[in-house]
Design brief:
This protein is mainly alpha-helical. It has helices at residues 2-7, 23-29, 34-47, 53-65, 71-81, 87-97, 105-114, 124-136, 140-152, 159-171, 175-184, 190-202, 206-215, 221-233, 237-249, 256-269, 272-284, 291-303, 307-315, 324-336, 340-352, 359-371, 375-387, 395-407, 411-419, 427-439, 443-456, 461-473, 477-489, 520-536, 552-560, 563-574, 591-603, and strands spanning 498-503, 506-511, 581-585, 608-611, 616-620, 623-624. Bound molecules: zinc ion (2 copies).
Length: 630
């Protein structure tokens, strides 16, 4: 207070309130708390200076500069007391509301008040700020109303305004409207191109995204990261990897977003060598290891079959673990590898260090229980998720529970849970139960479940095939054939089994019965030779996996052509004795291929890691890590 009275000493009265060194104004500059602001405001009121926009603006701007939680609403109150706020003040306040989604309607109210007489005319900054609010808090209809005003003033084609409009439309799923703005804008910069490409990526229209990307006059790390992420998102992993190579050739340094996408591609392709290379790159180039990137790295190692390395990366004390992402990646990884108890332990540790679990954590945890046949634990966590953690179970959690109960043979309990779910079960849940019916040989429930699936999704070929398999296993070949005919008449094709293996940085893909690979002859003669060796070792083909009414010999040949066997044979031919073989398969591995791989691991003294749609199988010395429960 002493300082304030000195500043207000009458000797300094000569300056006018519009001088920036006017004592009261420098007083505003020295404010450091809300109490100071209020004192300064009191002086402005007493002296009548509050009615001048310059000193009042200074106070408002000072308010924004201070880390005070309620400063925005206080600033707005001050703003309302100014008789004719200038454009700068309007823009400052509108911008201040922009990042607060819950109060972004205030930006629109301020904008509308600007349109009234005697208010300053909005300029391009005003439009940029208001469109931002429409993007993050308001909706597209508010955005369109504001756009009319921009068009009236000829500001909609200004590059800054157009850019934020493109982003607004693209973010809210109106990619065609975004494109119109993009096409009409007089000037485009990197931001315009990147936003437009981002819009197409979000709409999963990779064709258009790529076309624009190729047309771009120049590309930065955002352009490359966006298009790479797009390819990963739609499952075009090879293309994503190719683009990553091109990006490096173009001399663009990747950032943590690019690398997270590329790691996701490596994980899906089981490209461990490339994944490792990226890990080294992150360390050497000192890339900011944020929690998303860490999660991608853990996920990559886990999905490439190296769960121990994933765990080492997770445990590294230099890596951040304050958010749920790395924990989710690690718990999912352990679940996938059948290390259920460790997944549960990690979940318990996560609670001790105060990281709150989310929906994904529970999917991972329930999956861990399911893969480890931990029925009681699964039931308990399913209950606790709502009662302790306040997370309402969704379809995905019910799916895990159905799978857990069904696989453990508790078919009745699984069916009861599915029929009493608060939401309609989908074909994935019914399909899992149908699979369980098959494993546990419950034909009656299988038929009932099959009917549910047929009623809800008549073209769901996977479930029909499963049911047809069940018919042929119980030697009801006519029923099986009927169902198969129906599948053919409906014109839907079963997803073909596809396995891939990486060799020296190149991916080799094999479809079921594939004969397109350059080494086909060698592979098939190797398989014939292998069949003899395995028979001597005691392997008996489990022909129930073959659906048709073939004779036994033909069934054996059909099994021989399953995609993972072609990939394993290719791996055995082309790698040195003792080399670990990694295969990834798009479908679940069948019982017979599982059995045969166990034999191969023993007869050929090879470790073989197969990642199927559900989990990992680590074959070694004639045994599998899943202990035949999958
Ligand atoms: Zn198979
Ligand atoms: Zn297994």
């Amino acid at each position: 207070m002493k300082r304030f009275s000195t500043l207000l000493s009458p000797t300094r009265k000569a300056r006018t309130p519009l001088d920036s060194d006017y004592p009261l104004l420098s007083l505003v500059d020295s404010c450091k708390s809300m109490a100071h602001i209020k004192q300064a405001q009191a002086h402005l009121i007493i002296t009548g200076l509050i009615l001048h926009s310059f000193p009042a603006s200074k106070l408002i701007i000072k308010l924004f500069a201070l880390p005070i939680p309620s400063s925005l609403s206080y600033a707005h109150q001050l703003f309302d007391q100014i008789p004719s706020p200038n454009l700068f003040l309007y823009n400052t306040l509108i911008k201040a509301y922009e990042p607060t989604a819950h109060s972004s309607h205030n930006s629109l109210l301020l904008f509308r008040s600007m349109l009234r007489n005697s208010s300053p005319c909005p300029n391009r900054y005003t439009f940029v700020f208001v469109f931002h609010s429409c993007n993050y808090g308001l909706g597209i209809s508010e955005g369109e109303q504001v756009r009319v005003q921009a068009v009236k003033r000829g500001l909609d084609t200004n590059v800054f305004v157009a850019n934020v409009l493109i982003r607004m439309y693209a973010n809210q799923g109106f990619v065609d409207d975004a494109r119109k703005v993009f096409d009409w804008s007089l000037e485009r910069d990197l931001f315009s191109w990147n936003s437009m490409i981002g819009g197409y990526v979000r709409a999963a229209d990779l064709g258009q995204a790529r076309e624009l990307f190729d047309e771009m006059p120049e590309r930065d790390v955002v352009s490359w990261s966006t298009i790479i992420a797009g390819y990963v998102q739609v499952g075009f992993f090879m293309e994503a990897m190719e683009l990553f190579c091109k990006m490096q050739l173009a001399g663009i340094v990747p950032n943590e977003f690019t690398l997270a996408s590329v790691l996701a591609a490596c994980a899906s392709l089981v490209a461990l060598d490339q994944g490792r290379w990226i890990h080294v790159y992150i360390e050497k180039a000192r890339i900011n290891m944020n929690e998303r990137l860490l999660a991608s790295l853990i996920d990559m190692y886990a999905k490439c079959g190296d769960i121990d390395l994933a765990f080492r990366v997770f445990c590294d004390e230099n890596n951040p673990k304050r958010t749920v992402w790395p924990w989710n990646a690690m718990i999912s990884g352990l679940a996938m590898h059948g290390r259920s108890k460790e997944a549960i332990n990690l979940f318990e540790r996560m609670k001790i260090v105060n990281v709150a679990p989310d929906r994904i954590t529970f999917v991972a945890l329930l999956n861990a229980c399911s893969h480890g046949r931990l029925v009681d634990e699964g039931r308990l966590y399913f209950k606790l998720m709502r009662s302790i953690h306040g997370i309402e179970p969704g379809l995905e959690h019910y799916g895990c529970m159905g799978d857990l109960l069904g696989r453990a043979g508790l078919l009745k309990e699984a069916e009861e849970m599915i029929t009493s779910m608060p939401m309609a079960p989908d074909t994935v849940i019914w399909g899992a139960l149908l699979g369980a019916c098959r494993i546990h040989g419950d034909m009656e429930m299988g038929r009932r479940v099959g009917k549910f699936i047929r009623d809800s999704e008549p073209n769901h070929v996977g479930c029909h095939v499963l049911l047809a398999n069940m018919y042929s296993e119980s030697r009801r070949f006519n029923d099986a054939k009927d169902l198969r005919d129906r599948i053919e008449i409906a014109g839907v094709k079963k997803t073909p089994g596809c396995s891939s293996i990486e060799l020296g940085g190149t991916f080799h893909q094999f479809l079921v019965g594939d004969r397109s690979h350059p080494q086909t002859k060698l592979i098939y003669s190797f398989l014939d030779e292998m069949a003899i060796k395995l028979k001597i070792a005691g392997y008996v083909p489990e022909t129930r996996e073959v659906m048709l009414d073939l004779d036994e010999e033909e069934k054996e040949t059909a099994l021989l052509r399953h995609s993972e066997r072609l990939a394993i044979a290719f791996g055995l031919i082309n790698t040195a004795p003792g080399t670990l073989i990694r295969i990834v398969k798009n479908l679940r591995v069948c019982g017979d291929c599982h059995q045969v791989t166990k034999f191969i691991s023993k007869v050929y003294s090879r470790e073989i890691i197969v990642r199927d749609r559900m989990r990992f199988h680590h074959f070694k010395d004639g045994l599998c890590s899943c202990k035949d429960y999958w």
